[in-house]
# Entry
Amino acid sequence: MSDPTSRLCELAREGDREAAGELVSLLYERLYAWLRRLTGSEEDAADLTQKTFARAWTALASWQGRSSFSTWLHGIGHHVYVDWRRAQPPVSLPLDEWWTLCPDDAPDPFESAAERDLAERLFAHVERLDEDTRQTVHLHYYQGLSLAETAEVLDIATSTVKYRLRQALDFLKTRLAEPKAPVR
# Structure
């Protein structure tokens, strides 16, 4: 398997703490960012990321290498998130605050106010998709997982992933085609 984390995983299974630490270093930020988008909270995302790694270490012997370690870890993270979500009352995310409270230290990718406005509108519309479609969009587009990896994480057929993404794209095209369409 071409997954660069495969060897680290094998070493971690054998008890190599440095390899386990390297796996955390390589995957923590990506997993945390995904959970941050889903939860809307830095604290909850940090807690869920920790729970995901704790479950992963407990189940490390069951990883069989049929998928990348990252995909396997995202699958565990998905289940951790679903369990957390079931225990939570419905929450509305402060989307406007999120954009202003999470500055990036990297150079600003939005060269114009129009691009930033479009990105904010796109993010707001994605957050209004139903839970299953939103998770599919987050995993495939924001996390960069392939269709097959997204399907594996969500434990659904690849055709279902394609269908959800098509629904999301159709919805987003319709909403974004309208000038300054209100977010509902």
Q: What stands out?
A: The chain has two domains: 5-87, 95-177. The first helix runs from residue 5 to 13. Residues 5-87 form a domain with the Rna Polymerase Sigma Factor; Chain: A fold (CATH 1.10.1740.10).
